[in-house]
Amino acid sequence: MKKKTIAIDMDGVLADFESQLIDHYNTAYGTSLTKESIQGLSEEEAFKERDLLFKVLNKDNFFRTLPVMQDAVESVRELQKNFEIFIVSAATEFPVSLAEKVAWLGEYFPFIKWENIVLCGSKRIINTDYMIDDHCKNLDYCIGKPIMFTAFHNVNQTHHLRVNNWKEAVAVLNETL
Amino acid sequence: MKKKTIAIDMDGVLADFESQLIDHYNTAYGTSLTKESIQGLSEEEAFKERDLLFKVLNKDNFFRTLPVMQDAVESVRELQKNFEIFIVSAATEFPVSLAEKVAWLGEYFPFIKWENIVLCGSKRIINTDYMIDDHCKNLDYCIGKPIMFTAFHNVNQTHHLRVNNWKEAVAVLNETL
After folding, report:
1. Interface test with A, best of B119, B129, B137 (most A CBs within 10 A)
2. CA–CA separation, A155 vs A162, rounded Å?
3. Angle ∠(B157,B159,B161) on CA atoms, nearest 5
4. Digits of tens for pLDDT over chain B (177 positions)?
5. Residues of chain B with C-beta less than 8 angstroms from the C-beta of A92
6. Is the CATH code 3.20.20.120 the one for domain A4-16+68-174?
7. Measured distance CA(B108)–CA(B86) in Å, rounded
8. Closest alpha carbon within chain A to B87
9. What is the rounded end-to-end Cα distance, in angstroms, of chain B?
10. Measured between CB atoms, which of A5, A103, A118 is closest to B118?
């Protein structure tokens, strides 16, 4: 039988974007943001200086050096037994991130083939059975079943099935088999 | 009413990949391939030295300097009046091409927003109403209606609706309105 498909986001889901952004933003701007201090804020509220935020995100190696999320590697490998995995990242806004993202995946997820990597803008045209993402802007319009991965900016959202970490994600998805 | 969506390929459809590849391959390998001499051959038959082909495709600026296909700019702009256009390129096999493709689109198609650019591997999960592409490996498995854009390697394929140039593509698509 054909395996069901899962689209998995990178920033905030496979990669710990939040820690890295806080670090780089604090260093560049002299702020003292912490994971706790930005809980429940939108990205716009947490990182108020949009120009500076974009400067940080456009810096060489920002995306290449993101820490990998806890349990992500083993979990994706586990899911790959029963699902076809696509990595789907909204990345075309930051051209410098594109090759870095492919290289980052090559380092941590070498078992994901290039055929299964999608660097896009809008995820509205991505047709997979499930989509794991941290952003409502993607989950609200996705074709498959949305699964919200907890992040500081989505903790007050209640309209999607939520998973708080990779162990929960694997459990929820394996239950559908 | 929501506009219907079209996924448009880059290499061989928006960009004249064939001319550039023949030029660079001949220069690097001392061959004398021409558009006429490779008509009806597969890519593997036309460009026999796979290692060299990959070396050419991985060279800096190969994708950034592709000529734009005749009538492509005006045609996409025309289609954009009645359709939502997504540019969908199978590019993750060549990481160096990724930022170059976004820059190339910025030069010739500045009216395409980053949200509508998809750099992917397999196009099986791209869900648009139409897909314009030159490769059976994409058209045979696409979700929407496939439209084959003529290229040297597909002239003997007869199982898809064919357009030979951008003027024909616009005529075929506008007829669906």
Report:
1. B119
2. 9
3. 100
4. 799 999 999 999 999 999 999 999 999 999 999 999 999 999 999 999 999 999 999 999 999 999 999 999 999 999 999 999 999 999 999 999 999 999 999 999 999 999 999 999 999 999 999 999 999 999 999 999 999 999 999 999 999 999 999 999 999 999 999
5. 102, 114-115, 117-119
6. no
7. 15
8. A120
9. 12
10. A118
B121 touches chain A (CB under 8 A): yes
A vs B, Cβ pairs < 8 A, gives 81
- Which residues, at least 6 apart from A10, have a Cβ–Cβ distance to it below 8 Å? A17, A87, A89, A91, A101, A104, A105
Among the listed residues A135, A129, A104, the one whose alpha carbon sits nearest the alpha carbon of residue A117: A104
Q: Cα distance from B10 to chain A (closest Cα, Å)?
A: 14
User: In angstroms, rounded to a whole number, what is the distance separating the alpha carbons of residues B91 and A119?
Assistant: 9
CATH 3.40.50.1000 residue ranges for chain A: 4-16+68-174
Pairing type for strands A161-163 and B4-8 reads: unpaired
Report which of A23, A1, A2, A21 is spatially closest to residue A11, judged by C-alpha positions: A21
Q: Determine the residue among A118, A123, A141, A142 to mutate to test chain B binding: the one whose Cβ has the most chain B Cβ atoms within 10 Å.
A: A118
Catalytic residue among A11, A60, A129, A134: A11
Q: Three-state DSSP class for A46?
A: helix
C-alpha B170/C-alpha B76 separation (Å) is 8
Q: Tell me the CB-side half-sphere exposure of residue A11, using CA atoms within 13 A.
A: 25
- Is A99 within 8 Å of chain B by CB? yes
For residue B124, give both structure tokens. 């099986």
